[in-house]
């Protein structure tokens, strides 16, 4: 039997093939590699590279920078020192997904693009409908580098959410020689992480590969419960003529016991270290009984804490990539990938008691994701031109549901929050989402002279979202983001051997999320049908200009930018997160962001490096918006001129590092300015400064142990109390009374020791 959906997909894909074949393809962005042994500098590798030669604002961090962080630290945290980046997490690793947030130039992660070896990771939100978090896609020990483009991301990046910049991760290559390496970390709160990697070396056919295993766990720094990760990664490279065939597979099994979301009022009454009741079942039952007795109107009894909460995720991610030269002028690269995810987010809620049992139940949001895709591109070099054109196609089947599971006994719990739940008490809603993505790009990089390079191109984006209601409010229908021409222009001019300038401009679009918890499908049935036919996708226009200087002892960067953000869609949180009330959606029109970024790397003497970045950002709503209240009355919300949430005006990051090749030590200081968590700027968290220290010694070879290294790290050295994540349950309009339960505290001082060696 014919499948109409498959026929539509094939027809749309075939429609783009002539465009690819007719469009002679291009230059990929310059490979921003770390420089070793630079004349006049230290004999160790640079860990932050300021994007020399790029037509855009680009920086990279190398594997060495990631390696100097506590093992298991998210590669996202490795870029937090770069200009324009505001990174937050309530754990010291930046890997706890419920709390992890990143904003760049005022764009949050929902509006950034992320890839691993060109494979799309989606928008990397917690309830991800189109990808997965980087910590589940690859162990941090296998990340070779991270490249950040703050404004106009590379035109061939596989993303439909990058209104702002892009973050591109690259996995390490297999080694030429057979070997085994391992690292063992122990730290505060019973933290333990074991990493092991086996390299095959080059075999007779030229094949090389590695297999790695990660086993990690730590207890929460407040409250009770563990956060665990099990991860297995395989990568194989096979020469094919002058090209390379690469296979990659990663399995991740992550369990996170959640921290309780806080409000300023809860902190005043309960203290900064307040958390959920687990393992005190009797306290949870007593609070739930009081909540039910009040008709679920006693906010303290109902929402100060819950029985327990956790997030469970299992992921299989794999790709096969062929990078093949065709003659001397043509390069063909194709990547096919597959990603499957199963997940549950659990909350012990008093709002739905178990009939005849405990005065609470377990509420879940459940995820079942199956997506696959292909990226194919050709690059043609002809004289002063490098032309690149390609297509990205993805199909994504996503099922999402809200269910409740019974706790039948008052005597004690019968269900573990560390295990996937089965046999639900009830299903509140369930939706099937089918998303088809087709993106075509074409660009030319023209070396006009030896000093001037021009990059010009465009993307064509079509994303069709189809929803089918299984249970719940009917929101069956189709919405589409279709932008056939999104231009991008960039120029780089070399002033002399050390100084260069760059400028770029780009138009971008964000496709609608296919999710029951975010975007157009997350609102009420009436709200969805009211906006379905008139809703416009969010778009942005980015402009930036800057200078880079590369000297014997000093590298500097200075950039200014202006961003116009159109049709911004706000999701306004209603009630507490555990209640699961549908948000109110509002199109607030425009947002204007402008800012300045600067960075300096100074190597005053051999082996010593000082890196500092400073960012100033002003992001304001241009327009008021109108919303309809629960009483049916329309009301104008005066947000025009207000700062957008979670966009600190000032970010200052500084790191001092000394590395002799044997002994290494570093200290970094991070200042984050005041941040609003309300649209009306009636609710904010204070600015804070954190100090982190780390160091170690490379002992060399000891018998069978090769390259033995001992390392110690201390995070938040001054034990600062501060709020990290400020939208764990979304943003609200106002919080004059401090009851918005959407804050998470940052981790206190933590200690880690690590031993690494090869065998």
Provide tags for this entry:
759 residues, 22-stranded antiparallel barrel, six-stranded mixed sheet, mainly beta, single chain
Description:
By secondary structure, the protein is mostly beta strands. About 10% of the residues lie in helices and about 50% in strands. The chain has seven helices and 37 strands. The strands form six sheets. The protein has a 22-stranded antiparallel barrel. Strand 15 and strand 16 (about 330-350) form a beta hairpin. Mean pLDDT is about 90; it is low at about 1-45.
Helix/strand structural class? mainly beta
Radius of gyration: 26 Å
Sheet with the most strands, sense and barrel status: 22 strands, antiparallel, barrel
Mean pLDDT metric = 89
- Quickly count the helices: 7
Approximate helicity band = under 10%
Shape: globular
Q: What is the number of E strands?
A: 37
> What is the beta-strand fraction?
over 45%
Unreliable spans are: 1-44
Q: How widely separated are the two ends? A: 56 Å
Helix and strand topology:
Blueprint: H1 4-22, E1 48-49, E2 58-62, H2 63-67, E3 85-88, E4 101-104, E5 107-108, E6 113-116, E7 119-120, H3 134-137, E8 143-149, E9 166-171, E10 179-187, E11 191-199, E12 208-219, E13 226-240, E14 243-257, H4 264-270, H5 281-293, H6 299-303, E15 309-326, E16 330-349, E17 361-382, E18 385-406, E19 426-447, E20 452-471, E21 477-494, E22 499-510, H7 525-531, E23 538-550, E24 554-566, E25 569-572, E26 584-587, E27 591-602, E28 608-621, E29 625-628, E30 634-637, E31 650-659, E32 663-672, E33 675-676, E34 684-685, E35 688-702, E36 705-715, E37 750-758
Parallel strand pairs: 6-9
Antiparallel strand pairs: 1-2, 2-8, 3-4, 4-5, 6-7, 8-9, 10-11, 10-37, 11-12, 12-13, 13-14, 14-15, 15-16, 16-17, 17-18, 18-19, 19-20, 20-21, 21-22, 22-23, 23-24, 24-27, 25-26, 27-28, 28-31, 29-30, 31-32, 32-35, 33-34, 35-36, 36-37
């Amino acid at each position: 039997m014919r499948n109409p959906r498959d026929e539509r997909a094939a027809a749309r894909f075939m429609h783009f093939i002539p465009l690819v074949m007719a469009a002679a393809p291009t230059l990929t962005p310059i490979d921003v590699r770390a420089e070793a042994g630079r004349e006049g500098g230290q004999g160790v590798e640079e860990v932050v590279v300021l994007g020399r030669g790029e037509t855009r604002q680009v920086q990279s961090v190398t594997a060495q920078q990631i390696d100097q962080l506590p093992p298991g630290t998210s590669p996202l945290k490795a870029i937090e020192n770069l200009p324009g980046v505001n990174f937050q997490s309530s754990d010291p690793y930046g890997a706890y997904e419920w709390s992890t947030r990143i904003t760049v130039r005022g764009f949050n992660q929902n509006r950034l693009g992320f890839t691993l070896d060109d494979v799309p990771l989606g928008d990397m939100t917690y309830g991800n409908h189109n990808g997965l978090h980087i910590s589940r896609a690859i162990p941090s020990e296998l990340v070779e580098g991270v490249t950040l483009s703050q404004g106009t991301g590379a035109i061939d990046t596989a993303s439909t959410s990058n209104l702002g910049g892009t973050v591109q991760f690259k996995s390490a290559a297999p080694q030429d020689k057979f070997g085994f390496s391992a690292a063992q970390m122990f730290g505060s709160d019973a933290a333990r992480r074991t990493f092991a990697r086996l390299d095959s070396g080059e075999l007779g056919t030229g094949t090389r590969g590695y297999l790695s295993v990660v086993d990690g766990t730590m207890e929460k720094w407040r409250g009770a419960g563990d956060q665990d990760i099990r991860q297995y990664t395989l990568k194989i490279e096979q020469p094919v003529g002058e090209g390379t065939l690469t296979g990659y597979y990663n399995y991740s099994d992550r369990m996170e016991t959640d921290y309780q979301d806080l409000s300023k009022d809860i902190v005043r009454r309960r203290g900064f270290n307040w958390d959920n009741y687990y393992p005190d079942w009797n306290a949870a039952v007593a609070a739930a009984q009081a909540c039910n007795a009040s008709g679920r109107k006693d906010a303290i009894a109902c929402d100060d804490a819950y029985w327990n909460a956790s997030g469970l995720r299992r992921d299989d991610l794999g790709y096969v990539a062929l990078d093949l030269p065709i003659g001397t002028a043509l390069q063909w690269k194709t990547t096919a990938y597959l990603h499957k995810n199963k997940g549950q987010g659990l909350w012990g809620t008093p709002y739905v008691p178990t009939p005849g049992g405990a005065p609470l139940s377990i509420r879940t949001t459940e995820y079942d994701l199956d997506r696959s895709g292909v990226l194919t591109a050709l690059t043609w070099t002809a004289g002063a031109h490098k032309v690149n054109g390609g297509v990205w196609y993805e199909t994504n089947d996503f099922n999402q549901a809200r269910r409740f599971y019974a706790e039948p006994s008052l005597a004690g719990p019968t269900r573990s929050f560390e295990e996937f739940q089965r046999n639900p008490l009830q299903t509140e809603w369930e939706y099937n989402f089918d998303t088809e993505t087709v993106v075509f790009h074409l660009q030319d990089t023209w070396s006009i002279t030896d000093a001037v390079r021009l990059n010009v191109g465009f993307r064509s984006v079509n994303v069709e979202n189809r929803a089918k209601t299984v249970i719940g409010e009917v929101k069956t229908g189709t919405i589409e983001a279709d932008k056939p021409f999104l231009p991008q222009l960039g120029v780089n001019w070399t002033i002399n051997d050390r100084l260069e300038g760059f400028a770029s401009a780009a138009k971008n679009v964000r496709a609608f999320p296919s999710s029951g918890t975010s975007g157009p499908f997350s609102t009420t049935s009436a709200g969805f049908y009211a906006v379905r036919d008139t809703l416009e996708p969010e778009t942005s226009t980015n402009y930036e200009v800057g200078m880079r200087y590369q000297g014997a002892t000093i590298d500097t960067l200075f950039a200014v930018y202006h961003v116009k953000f159109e049709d911004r869609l706000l999701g306004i949180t209603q009630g507490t997160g555990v209640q699961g009330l549908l948000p109110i959606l509002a199109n607030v029109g425009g947002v204007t962001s402008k800012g300045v970024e600067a960075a300096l790397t100074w190597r005053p003497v051999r082996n010593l490096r000082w890196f500092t970045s400073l960012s100033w950002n002003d992001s304001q709503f241009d327009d008021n918006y109108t919303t309809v209240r629960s009483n049916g009355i329309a009301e104008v919300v005066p947000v025009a001129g207000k700062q957008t949430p979670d966009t600190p005006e000032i970010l200052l990051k500084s790191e001092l590092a000394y590395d002799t090749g044997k002994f290494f030590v570093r200290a970094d200081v991070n200042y984050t300015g005041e941040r609003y968590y309300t649209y009306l700027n009636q609710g904010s968290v204070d600015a804070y400064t954190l100090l982190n220290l780390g160091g170690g010694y490379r002992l060399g070879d000891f018998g069978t142990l090769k390259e033995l290294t001992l390392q110690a790290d201390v995070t938040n050295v001054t034990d600062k109390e501060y709020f990290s994540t400020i939208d764990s349950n979304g943003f609200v309009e106002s919080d004059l009374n401090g009851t918005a339960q959407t804050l998470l505290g940052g981790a206190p001082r933590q200690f880690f020791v690590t031993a690494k060696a090869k065998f």
